[in-house]
């Protein structure tokens, strides 16, 4: 029978030391009861607590840390669909290079340096996947070590040779990389190598029963930094199998399948195949790759995937927001107009970007609308003429501006009258509905 938070709290030290990341033992107990924490996160749990809670308190999917400091977290998911609650740890993305390619090091460095800035966040790749297509085990391990040294990124060392993987594990010691992949014969050797050098180990088998058998064996030997590798399947079957595995772990408490999973997208042979590769990679970010390795490094391929990942792995209950405030765009002065929008990040960056593109200097007033878009916040009563007027008055703009021109978003023309009432002395204009029309609006209405 599942224990309640209060029952679990009685088994904890009750010192509220916060080392588990929760403010109190009770808060941690509630997380354990909801299977959103692992008892191992409390360093002071007694043997009795470990015995009683043990596996029962374990989250349905294990969380693993990659990288030298184990900061790149994967797994730990609790729902099948993002809209049920949220996905927890975003898919770690890896650019794949081959050890047969003399330009592998340069491609890995380019992948490491690539940054896509979107809605105020820097989006980057997380790993380099080095495939063993040509080199002997020693040379493969040496190449892996060189790439890690040059990029400081964790690697996915991928080889069909257990010897090459064991040697790569040593060359990559302390980098928090992934060895891919162990089968029934190589499991014991590679689990020992991964454990000794601080890596995660991907395991692979022809079917789910085989995979479950491998994870059970590894767990029994005391090593659980495991990742499920379903690469033996075709694209459609792989989606199906990954979904079945996730459902088994989350809904049926199948411990043996409660691990993150890894997927590899093959290099395209033609332009048509490139579209297929993109479709596969996109699908795998949504369902349910914890780690995704895709071919090479081409910004045109990775930019849409980084954007998709950002969209899927933001918490739908917490819209991405910018700090409320009055932002200068360009070099505004006392005669510059004041545009108003909400603090939903996407809206803010669209409007500020378009003001910049139009070559305007303006103030951008952003009241707190709880991160909602213009129409949503207006419908929720968070963005009204009165609230806009109050915000402008509180920020003291009237005292600093000579020409008091306020531009409201075009979609909420109905709040103009109320804003005018609250802002005597201001000229209140209704801007365009689409930001793309901002430049022509500025030319015709702002002189
Ligand atoms: S680490 Fe353990 S003792 Fe400390 S607050 Fe968390 S549960 Fe309580």
Output the number of helix runs: 17
Mean pLDDT value: 92
Q: Which strand order does the major sheet show?
A: 3-6-7-8-9-10-11-12
Do you know the CATH architecture of the largest domain?
Alpha-Beta Barrel
From the structure provided, what is the oligomeric state, counting identical versus distinct chains?
single chain
Helix content class:
25-40%
Strand content: 15-25%
Gap between N and C termini = 72 Å
Described by strand count, sense and barrel closure, the largest sheet is: 8 strands, parallel, barrel
CATH class of the largest domain: Alpha Beta
CATH topology of the largest domain: TIM Barrel
CATH superfamily of the largest domain: Dihydropteroate synthase-like
Shape: globular
Please indicate the count of domains. Answer: 3
Structural class label = alpha/beta
Describe this structure in words.
- By secondary structure, this protein is an alpha/beta fold.
- The chain has 3 domains: 5-57, 3-methyladenine DNA Glycosylase II, Chain A, domain 3 (Orthogonal Bundle); 63-312, TIM Barrel (Alpha-Beta Barrel); 325-445, Rossmann fold (3-Layer(aba) Sandwich), CATH 3.40.50.
- It has 17 helices and 17 strands.
- It has helices spanning 5-9, 25-33, 47-53, 104-113, 137-151, 162-171, 187-197, 208-220, 235-251, 271-286, 299-312, 345-357, 374-379, 385-394, 397-400, 416-422, 438-445; strands spanning 63-66, 72-75, 92-98, 116-118, 121-123, 127-131, 155-158, 178-182, 200-204, 226-229, 261-264, 291-295, 325-329, 338-340, 362-366, 405-408, 427-430.
- The strands form 4 sheets. It has an 8-stranded parallel β-barrel, surrounded by 6 helices. Strands 13-15-14-16-17 form a 5-stranded mixed β-sheet, sandwiched between helices. Strands 1-2 form a two-stranded antiparallel ribbon.
- Strand 7, helix 6 and strand 8 (178-182) form a beta-alpha-beta unit.
- Helix 6 packs parallel to helix 7 and helix 14 packs parallel to helix 16 (416-422).
- The longest helix has 17 residues, at 235-251.
- It is globular and about 80 Å long.
- The protein starts with a helix and ends with a helix.
- The model has no long low-confidence stretch (mean pLDDT 92).
- The structure holds iron/sulfur cluster.
């Amino acid at each position: 029978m599942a224990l309640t938070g209060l029952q679990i709290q009685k088994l904890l030290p009750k010192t509220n030391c916060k080392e588990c990341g929760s403010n109190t033992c009770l808060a941690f107990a509630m997380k354990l009861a909801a299977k959103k924490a692992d008892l191992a996160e409390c360093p002071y749990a007694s043997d009795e607590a470990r015995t009683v809670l043990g596996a029962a308190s374990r989250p349905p999917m294990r969380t693993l840390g990659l990288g030298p400091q184990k900061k790149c977290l994967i797994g730990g998911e609790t729902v099948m669909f993002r809209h049920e609650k949220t996905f927890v740890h975003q898919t770690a993305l890896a650019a794949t290079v081959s050890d047969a390619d003399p330009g592998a090091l340069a491609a890995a460095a380019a992948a490491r340096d690539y940054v896509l800035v979107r809605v105020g966040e820097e989006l980057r790749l997380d790993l380099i996947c080095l495939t063993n297509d040509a080199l002997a085990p020693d040379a493969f391990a040496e190449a892996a070590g060189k790439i890690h040294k040059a990029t400081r990124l964790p690697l996915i060392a991928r080889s069909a040779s257990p010897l090459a993987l064991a040697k790569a594990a040593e060359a990559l010691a302390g980098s928090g990389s992934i060895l891919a992949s162990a089968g029934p014969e190589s499991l014991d050797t590679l689990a020992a190598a991964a454990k000794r050098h601080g890596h995660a180990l991907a395991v692979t088998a022809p079917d789910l029963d085989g995979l479950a058998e491998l994870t059970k064996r590894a767990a029994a030997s005391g090593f659980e930094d495991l990742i499920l590798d379903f690469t033996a399947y075709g694209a459609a079957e792989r989606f199906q199998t990954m979904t079945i595995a996730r459902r088994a772990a989350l809904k049926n408490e199948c411990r043996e399948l409660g691990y993150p999973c890894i997927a590899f997208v093959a290099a395209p042979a033609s332009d048509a195949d490139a579209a297929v590769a993109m479709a596969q990679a996109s699908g795998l970010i949504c369902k349910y790759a914890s780690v995704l390795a895709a071919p090479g490094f081409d910004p045109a391929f990775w930019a849409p995937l980084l954007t998709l990942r950002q969209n899927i792995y933001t918490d739908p209950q917490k819209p991405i927001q910018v700090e409320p405030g009055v932002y200068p765009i360009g070099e505004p002065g006392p005669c510059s107009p004041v545009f108003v929008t909400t603090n939903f990040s996407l809206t803010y960056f669209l409007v500020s970007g378009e003001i910049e593109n139009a070559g305007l200097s303006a103030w951008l007033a952003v009241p707190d609308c709880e991160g909602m878009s213009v129409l949503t916040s207006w419908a929720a009563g968070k963005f009204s003429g009165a609230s806009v007027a109050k915000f402008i008055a509180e920020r003291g703009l009237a005292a600093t501006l000579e020409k008091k021109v306020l531009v409201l978003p075009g979609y909420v023309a109905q709040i103009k009258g109320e804003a005018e009432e609250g802002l005597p002395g201001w000229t209140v204009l209704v801007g365009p509905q689409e930001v793309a029309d901002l430049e022509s609006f500025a030319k015709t209405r702002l002189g």
